[in-house]
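Technical annex B. To support the medicinal chemistry partners, we prepared a structural model of the target in complex with adenosine-5'-diphosphate, based solely on the information shown next.
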Amino acid sequence: MHGTLKGKISLVYLSLVLLIALVGSAAFISLFNLGKAIEGLMIANYKSINAASNMMEAIERQDSAVLIYINVDSKKGKDMFAGYTEEFYKWFNIEANNLTEVGEKELVKNIKNSYKGYIKVFLDLQEVKNGNNVDKAIELYNTKIMPDFTQIKKYLLDLSQLNEKAMFRGKDAATRNSKSFMYMILTLSILAIIGGFITSRFSTNKFLAPISILTQNMKRVKIGDLDQQANIDTKDEIGELAQEFNNMTMRLKQYEQSTLGMILGEKTKFLAIMNSISEPLIVLDNDYRVALLNPSFEKTFNVKEADLIKRHFLEGIRNGEIFDFISDACKSIEAPHQKIFTIKTENEDKYFNAIITPIKDNEAFSGLIVIFQNVTQLKELERIRTDFIATISHEFKTPLTSIIMGTDVLLEEGMGKLNNEQKQFIEAIREDSDRLTNLVGDLLELTRIESGRAIFKFQKHSIEDIIDFATKPFYQKAEQNEINLYYQCDDNLPDVIADFEKITWVLNNLISNALKYTGAGDEICIKASACKDKVLVKVSDTGVGIPNEYLSKIFEKFVQVKDGDFEVRGTGLGLAVVKEIIEAHGGEIWCESKLDVGSSFMFTLAMEGKE
Ligand code: ADP
């Protein structure tokens, strides 16, 4: 029990209580003894003094009785004498049983003998008196009775003084004793106070020392020093606490080592993966500071990792276009963003598709990874394909013109009359030639834009003018098909920076598509409004709509919705060209549609002054 802290504290308290009890008992015993001694002494001496005084009074009365007996009334004197003799012996017996002082016994013996003599002389006096010899009686009184009386009185006085002296002695002794008891209790109290103080101080220090060691150790652990071990070898609760503390720091250290090891291992793996990626890759933090990059990035951008780490992206890579793309992408971190950039190297231009993947830490944006996918070869292939298509399309144009011209001449019957069968046959050739011409036209337009050979005349225009111009050719057809075609432009719309012809082409394409997929009673509406710093144009219809699975790829080349109800009536290139034209304007195009409800095609154009 006393091994525990509780036991130790209890022991200290117990020793203090014992100390107080010791002092208390000593004081009590001393006072008790003192009281008893005083009481004993006082009572015994007082009894003797009182007895002596009463004997004195009795004998004096007897003396008076003797005189009365001689001179006044012998009977009265005799009776009085006898009465006081009884009184005298009563007090004498009390005194004889209360012998406390040295010499008291002898004094009592003398009193007894003298008093016996005094009684005997009184008997002698009675004989003399009975013979009526008064003078002889007086003489006997003077010669015998009076000296005996005086002697007894002297003994009684001695007895009284002896006890008085004893009383004073007792008082002095009690005073002395009480003083020494007082000093003894004072000494014991001082010793108890000193003992209590030393014990409590010693035990407090002893108990608190390990706690302060533990506190110091904990403070060190708090600042990350996990090598702390509390050297406390007591077997009490603090010892247990120290043991637990030591176990805890040991575990923390093991954990730190294992976590650190794991992190280092993961980092090594991560770096190995990064370095093995052949595409240039860079990791930025949320302040666009470089966290990591791989050797391929160093080679492509001709930089050194050591020079770039922790520095802002633009400090190492002086390419504002790429940085703008990165910072724009960070504003909407949800989806990965990608864009193709041309990077000039020593010998040639290289094309890289920059793909941004945001790094999220608990939903918060904490950085990003940018991979530069080398698409130079793909670009080259695309260029070859575009050139090839352009050449082929171009080569198609001349024979197609001849075929159309030939069929026109034949249909106009300039080369002789045609029967109905021949006419139908040639009309089919004419129709297919028209479709082929459209296809070739679209292909040539597309390849021109894709290869950068298309010439755009960007100028400021009122969007309302473009829409008005683009819708005009369609009113008649809309009316014929009982379709309500109209446009709405917000008031005070700023001008757009656009190529009038190309945007007209875009609108023509969107409106003609809308007409193809709407019927009697439907509506086609073209709306223009301001949207942030862009102008938003929306071509919507209440036609058949586009199935969901087509929405994401509707702007790709040759994509056409296969629908049993509607005959495919185009080349599948229109929307691809539309997208190229809008993107060449720096705008965006997208589509929203619901089957049997209708479709909306939206595109944006730069406002004047905001391009
Ligand atoms: P096409 O020359 O075949 O019209 P587009 O590229 O212009 O080629 O259109 C691709 C496909 O998108 C069309 O075949 C059609 O299925 C669908 N489409 C385009 N516009 C609409 C529209 N307004 N309503 C329904 N479907 C449409």
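Notes passed to the chemistry partners:
Residues 509, 513-514, 517, 541, 543-544, 546, 554, 559-561, 570-575, 599 surround adenosine-5'-diphosphate (CB under 6 Å).
The chain has a mean pLDDT of 87.
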